[in-house]
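RECORD TYPE: protein structure
NAME: DUF1295 domain-containing protein
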Amino acid sequence: MTGTDLGTWAAGLPITAAVCLVLFGAAFVLGAARGRHRVVDVVWGPAFAAVALTSFGLSAGHGDPGRRTLALVLTAVWGLRLGAHIGTRSRGKPEDPRYEQLLDKARGSRLWFAFTRVYLLQAALVWFISLPIQVVQYGRSGLGPQTAAACALWLLGFACEAVGDWQLARFKADPANKGKLMTRGLWRYTRHPNYFGDACVWWGLFLLGADQWAGLCTIASPIVMTLLLTAGSGMRLADRHMSRTRPEYAQYARRTSGFVPLPPRRR
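PREDICTED:
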């Protein structure tokens, strides 16, 4: 195991937390002004990139340059692509039904409810899930043998997510597919290639610091991300929504894996 400058890392945690609060606070102001809180989804990916960039600056002189640079680049590429994709997809769209249903439960001020239950919650999740990226940049040794496995897993996840999003966007853009269900490409093997890709990306980023005890101690972060994608606001809600709105989705779900890409089941 290699050493980590834990003192400097711990001193930087309040700063990265403040970055998350500022970003999601600004998103709240924008969402409240527009009356659409789906803007928070656009900020989600870039917020991870901002935390990685902040940690990169704070760890200068304390961590290995190669380790710091790789963590920053992988996180930024993933986060900025995701933000750009969601921003393009949601442009001109009404409020996300998830947030409408959530805000219907508000007792009292809907804005305060949205601020605490949507924006503050996501700020806390970004900070916690990004702990592997924060701690890996303070590792003193160079990149270890696990780096190749980490990058391969990240690349698998990034490819699944990016290709799946591209295939779905292209499918929806074709007028001939209006009213049809996307069951081609990666979507033939998993109902949620983007969520599976997300999980792989964060397990890959966790592996970057798996050669140090401090990095191993952040294993709860990719676990939380995976649970969010599978049992939280990810595939569970998506499956529920699609089952209510698309009668043919039940048959698609019976033959198609929900998460890990697998050959379609026989009918």
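COMMENT: The chain has a mean pLDDT of 91.
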